[in-house]
Write a structure and sequence with these properties.
Elements: E1 3-10, H1 15-21, H2 30-45, E2 50-60, E3 64-67, E4 71-76, E5 88-93, H3 96-108, E6 113-116, H4 125-134, E7 141-148, H5 153-168, E8 173-179, H6 202-216, H7 220-233, H8 241-250, E9 259-268, E10 271-278
Parallel strand pairs: 1-8, 2-7, 2-8, 3-6
Antiparallel strand pairs: 1-10, 4-5, 9-10
Helix pairs in contact: 3-5, 5-8, 6-7
Length: about 280
């Protein structure tokens, strides 16, 4: 019997890589890296053997997709922000068996879902950047899951439930990470250099802070009722469907957990970010 043993909402902003690799930006996102290291410590303590990452940069337009390769290896450069993120090497085992278990759960529920193991199937940086720090030297399996930009919050709730069922029916101890921002309204290009450390718009910043207050207070029903409007009005990254999947896996409105903030809320290129660990149901 498998088990979901860790859950988190995480950042993946390229300025973390700049902080790590570029002398002129050294340390500007050390607090985010420190948050990753806390997640890493938790993963070790909970004996995680597979990281499942809901990747808002693996954006799909139809159906539900999993990267079911047995092995992930290569070198990544961001096509969006090549000046910020390049030469990120990766080498991780995949988890085809867990992918099959999740796909079975999805198919049994009548969902359109596909696993892909083609040699040229790569990975995106919403998986690669956090894994570089959290999974460094651990050699744990990695299973990236795409986020469909045209799917609904309700679909993602269902998909999250199926992910949880697939985990239970596997033999894996799984960490499930929703890798995406809170508000996601990029700073306009003319001001982009000056917006490296800010959130674009006070409305978005205040909404993000309100959502974090709801999370701190455990007001999960209120948050989930708010989520569709929040995603739309604050330009949610991939419609915040990673977040909907995460809470679907955690039990949706039956979720009664608590949070630990491992990286305090911060702005990056206009977007709102944090690393937050969510307790998992027994």
């Amino acid at each position: 019997m498998g088990q979901l043993v860790q859950a988190a909402k995480i950042t993946h902003v390229p300025s973390i890589w700049m902080s790590h690799t570029m002398e002129q930006y050294k340390g500007i996102r050390q607090f985010a890296i420190d948050g990753y290291m806390k997640l890493r410590d938790d993963a070790i303590a909970r004996d995680v053997d597979t990281f499942v990452v809901l990747d808002t940069h693996w954006i799909t337009n139809q159906g539900f997709h999993l990267n079911a390769k047995d092995h992930h290896k290569g070198r990544f450069i961001s096509h969006e922000l090549p000046h910020m993120l390049s030469d990120l090497e990766f080498d991780y085992p995949g988890d085809a068996d867990l992918a099959d278990s999740i796909l079975t759960a999805l198919h049994d529920r009548g969902e359109r879902a596909l696993g892909h193991a083609m040699p040229d199937m790569g990975m995106e940086y919403a998986t690669l950047l956090p894994m570089h720090f959290i999974n460094e030297g651990l050699g744990k399996r990695v299973l990236p899951i795409a986020v469909n930009q045209f799917s609904s919050i309700e679909e993602n709730r269902r998909w999250g439930e199926a992910i949880a069922e697939g985990i239970r029916k596997s033999g894996r101890r799984v960490a499930l990470y929703a890798s995406g921002s809170f508000s996601h309204d990029f700073t306009p290009n003319e001001r982009s250099v000056d917006g490296l450390n800010s959130v674009n718009g006070e409305f978005n910043r205040q909404m993000d802070l309100r959502v974090l207050d709801l999370w701190k207070q455990g007001k999960w029903v209120e948050f989930l009722d708010l989520l569709p409007d929040y995603a739309k009005k604050c330009t949610g990254e991939c419609a915040m469907n990673d977040t909907a999947m995460l809470f679907g896996a955690l039990g949706w409105k039956d979720y009664g957990g608590t949070i630990d903030i491992y990286t305090d809320y911060f702005g990056s290129s206009g977007t709102g970010q944090a690393n937050i660990s969510l307790s998992v149901p027994a």
